[in-house]
Amino acid sequence: MNLTTKFPHLRQDFAASLVVFLVALPLCVGVAVASGVPAELGLITGIVGGLVTGMMRGSSLQVSGPAAGLTVLVFEAVREFGLPVLGAIVLSAGLLQLVMGALKLGRWFRAISVSVVEGMLAGIGLVIIASQLYAAVGAEAPASGVGKIVGLPGALAEAAGSTAALASLALGAATVAVLVLWKRMPKRVQTVPGALAAVVLTSLASLAFSLPVATVEVQGLLGAIQPPGLDGFGELAGPAALGTVLAFTLIASAESLFSAAAVDRLHDGPRTEYDKELMAQGTGNIVSGALGALPMTAVIVRSAANVQAGARTKASRVLHGVWLLLFAALLPSALGLIPIPALAGILIHAGWKLIPFREVVSLWRAHRGEALILVVTAVAIVVVSMFEGVLIGLALSVVKTAWDASHIKLEVVDKGAGPVQAYLSGNATFLRLPKMLDSLEALPQDRPVELDLSGLHHLDHACRTALENWAERHSAVGTETVKVTALVT
């Protein structure tokens, strides 16, 4: 039995794995550098995403690794708790994901409002863009999201007087230009991923012109591995660290499972098993955390590249992890040639794509409440923090749902003679009971009333009792009767 018989899709999966590797390589390095950790840790997370998570069941074609969506949260965690504690946080988040998957809670993440998720991504995108603009000019970004945005004009003005800063900014701008224009290149040229092309071209330009720009610091794969110690886990006893663990868990899980739903729409193969996918992500984060590396999620950019490259089974994502491992082991010095502003340009472009401009416009036209949730979530993440911003978005979503669930409309048709016709529609709950009774009690007492409840989707006990009492009072001696039709049972 030859390989083709045993693995009928090996050729397609092999080719797709190379494409995904080329897409993942600059992103792994860029996310790590933007997160304030050694570049090798991004590669380690990518390797674990391929070799560990890639082997497990869940979503067969989506690819996991370090994601731009967690960059802001990781940077804040490293700044507040230090790099040695990051591994403990990631490992703990992975354990929570594993437990949630075992309890079959994965499918419930699909119930999270899409507006909250898109608002979360938009807020992350704004913070990434602001912070990486500082990196593009070789400046240090302020700690807070508001500080990053407010301080940008001053940082750019200061950069205008520095040759080194201008050279760095030019490389960053050139990277973004390559990424934007790459999609307009001939199809044959586009077989090389745009991010990789941008990094290679800017690295060559930096070497050719001896530009005074910062490059990635290299310390070797084994040197970057820092398993968390007991002190690191001891830090998790504090409320701030526990909140960070919950934020990692919530955001990584939501991003992974929403990515899985998107990937399912791209192919005709087996559908995602959400609980098993959550357990696969949890296992990957446990291993990644044990190595002191970055948290992982399923990444839609790599996953889409995997599907579009013709992948048929999970072998493609496992092989992409093998190529990342070989690169990190055999060519680590190549990382030292990559200019920091080039990675900043890649992340600025990635942050821009996280902001759902079209969705905001379409939501505003059709569902202004959802658009408001999206915008408030994004602004809260920038102004406050990632975790609190997401909680604010979720709270707003719950409030809106409660409002929609309690919405009720009373339409009165009075022809001047005969009975007054009243139509109730919507959801009759205790939250709208006072308004409903005020409207009914305002109907004429000296006329018969026909109350039609056929438009109600729900009638709770409190409203049912109140309607019956009102009908009895209106039909008492000396008043006209009330005829109720289509009463919800």
Structure characterization notes:
- Residues 10-377 form the SLC26A/SulP transporter domain.
- The protein is α/β, with parallel strands linked by helices.
- The protein has 21 helices and six strands.
- The chain folds into two domains: 3-400, no CATH class; 408-485, STAS domain (Transcription Regulator spoIIAA, 2-Layer Sandwich), CATH 3.30.750.
- The chain has helices at residues 3-6, 10-34, 39-51, 71-81, 83-102, 114-136, 145-159, 163-182, 194-208, 221-224, 230-234, 239-264, 274-290, 300-308, 315-330, 340-354, 357-366, 368-383, 386-405, 433-441, 461-474, and strands spanning 64-65, 297-298, 408-413, 420-428, 449-459, 482-485.
- The strands form two sheets. A four-stranded mixed β-sheet has the order 3-4-5-6, covered by helices on one side.
- Helix 2 packs across helix 9, helix 4 crosses helix 5 (83-102) and helix 6 runs parallel beside helix 18 (368-383).
